[in-house]
Write a structure and sequence with these properties.
The complex is a heterodimer of chains A (106) and B (117). Chain A is an all-beta fold and 106 residues long. Chain A has no helices and eleven strands. In chain A, strands 2, 4, 5, 9, 10 and 11 form a six-stranded mixed sheet that branches. A five-stranded antiparallel sheet of chain A has the order 1-3-8-7-6, with no helix packed on it. In chain A, β7 and β8 form a beta hairpin. Chain A is globular, with a radius of gyration of 13 Å. Chain B has 117 residues and is an all-beta fold. Helix content of chain B is 0%, strand content 49%. Classes of the chains: A mainly beta (106), B mainly beta (117). At the A-B interface, β5, β9 and β10 of A face β4, β5, β9 and β10 of B.
């Protein structure tokens, strides 16, 4: 089956810093998307991005489907950005990576 | 409000006592899925359903059953729970991810934390 690798596994940043999270897939995938799991456990869909680039405020994402990777950019990070970021993709089976745990220090 | 609703949110039970975690969505989504989340392992898919009466195994289906008799509901059944099923469970739904012209954007419920003693 498809393997999903996320990097880095952990990231600690000062408030205001920028960061890039990466997601690599072992094969081409459909329905690529990014999620944020907040400290209370809620999973929020950030981007549905099978290809191209999207932006939403301080967050943006780029997927290069031909090279089987996606990037999530967080600019001017805030403490509320803390949590775990997951990427996922697939067809009927939507497979998740193990996540990047982000901790933003005030 | 568009949402995926799971119940119960928290449950402590004992080994062997059958339980059902309900999941309901009000977005008319064809696709529904169950995941479990364990520390260090991310989210792993248990079962999914492409539409009414159509279900299939995910990566970790052992010890679980599902049914999809109605489009909006997708209950997860643990016939004889064991301690290794202690986990955080999530239900999710989307439009059909394989259907041309639709998106597979997943919407999650708030999770159900299950402890099996």
């Amino acid at each position: 089956g498809i393997q999903v690798e996320q990097s880095p596994p952990d990231l600690i940043l000062q408030e205001g810093a920028n960061s890039t999270l990466r997601c690599n897939f072992s094969d081409s995938v459909n329905n690529l998307q990014w999620f944020h799991q907040n400290p209370w456990g809620q999973l929020i869909n950030l981007f549905y991005i099978p290809s191209g680039t999207k932006q939403n405020g301080r967050l943006s994402a780029t997927t290069v489907a031909t090279e089987r990777y996606s990037l999530l950019y967080i600019s001017s990070s805030q403490t509320t950005d803390s949590g775990v970021y997951f990427c996922a993709g697939g067809d009927d089976k939507i497979i998740f990576g193990k996540g990047t745990r982000l901790h933003i220090l005030p | 409000e568009a949402q995926v609703t799971q119940n119960p949110r928290y449950l402590i039970t004992v080994t062997g006592k059958k339980l059902t975690v309900t999941c309901s969505q009000n977005m008319n989504h064809e696709y529904m899925s169950w995941y479990r989340q364990d520390p260090g392992l991310g989210l792993r898919q248990i079962y999914y359903s492409m539409n009414v009466e159509v279900t299939d195994k995910g990566d970790v289906p052992e010890g679980y059953k599902v049914s999809r008799k109605e489009k909006r509901n997708f209950p997860l059944i643990l016939e004889s729970p064991s301690p290794n099923q202690t986990s955080l469970y999530f239900c999710a739904s989307s439009m059909s991810p394989g259907l041309a012209g639709s998106t597979g954007e997943l919407f999650f419920g708030e999770g159900s934390r299950l402890t099996v003693l």
